[in-house]
Amino acid sequence: MNKVLLFMCLLGNCIQPTYAQSDEVMAKSYFLKAQQAYSEGNTATAMTNLDKTVEYLKGTNAKIESLYVKIWVANNNYLNAKKHLNNYFDNAEENHSDYMEMLAFVADVNSEIEAEKTFLKNLDIEKLNFTENLARVKYKDKYGFIDKAGSTIIPFKFDKAWSFSEGLALVMLDHKFGFIDKMGQTVIPFEYDVAWSFSEGLAQVLIDYKSGFINKNGKLVIPIKYNDADSFSEGLAPVKLGNLSDGTYGFIDKTGKTVIPFKYKSARSFTDGLALVQLEGKWGYLNNTGQIIIPIKFDYAWSFSEGKAKVELNDRVFYIDKTGNEIK
User: Fold this and answer.
1) Dihedral angle over CA of 310, 311, 316, 321, nearest 10
2) Is residue 17 part of a domain?
3) Which of 76-85, 114-123, 147-156, 239-248 has the lowest mean pLDDT?
4) Which pLDDT tens digit goes with each residue over 239-278?
5) Are 8 and 16 in contact (CB under 8 A)?
6) How many angstroms separate the Cα of 277 from the Cα of each of 34, 234, 249?
7) Do residues 229 and 222 lie in contact, with contact meaning Cβ atoms separated by under 8 Å?
8) Is residue 135 part of a domain?
């Protein structure tokens, strides 16, 4: 008996031989987890478990394919749904328990594919924001990515998505954040409450209201212990220790070492070699050694861009250069 048939028997609770049983038992376990996750509306977990089912089973069958179809339809990914519909009908007889349900999907899936083609055809490509040759597009409340030819590269299945940065895109599915590559493959699992795009090889992630940083392999390189943080820029990141009301900000390097002490009420990432910090209700700017370059005296201020920054002092709003002098 091959493994696919053996797995189908497992689903039917028939008696099995003992050889290679562990793989089939694992396959059944993952399949049941996939069914449970799908029934709870957690399609990302359902897909992960279904992929593991196929991995352990070393094959597929009608039952697996029908669940793939349902997951892809739930995510508005009709091209993949059609592929798995075809796989289903290649594996299923007309008396299969899911046959009529899958048959009912055919017309709707084909119709949705044509509707998506029409949507893409009518897009104004020139107005889209392409980063790393892909643009984020929203279609029917789901996000995907297209190329400059207007072809769907990553299907419209994500609840939220951000532009590609350093080869990866931050996306949200089933209320969790993860990262995908340019083929749409999950590189970093959907396990974070919040996350931010990669900057200088690291991304800020948040679990239970605490922040840390991961690398592009998903490895946690700076512990999740900070109450607030901003992205790495120019080798440093501002982070906050202490409680939300009276904690202080300092700056760490990419190893997590404190470079600028925790003493500021607020802080922003470095731009143009200077970082904006707040102390005793006033704002100023420091360099990457922690030296105050522009005095902490402004009522409010913004980060530097192209050599100048907007500031507010005594109800006046004006621009300053990197020496702190007003730009006339």
Assistant:
1) -70
2) yes
3) 239-248
4) 999 877 789 999 999 999 999 999 999 999 999 999 999 9
5) no
6) 48, 16, 9
7) no
8) yes
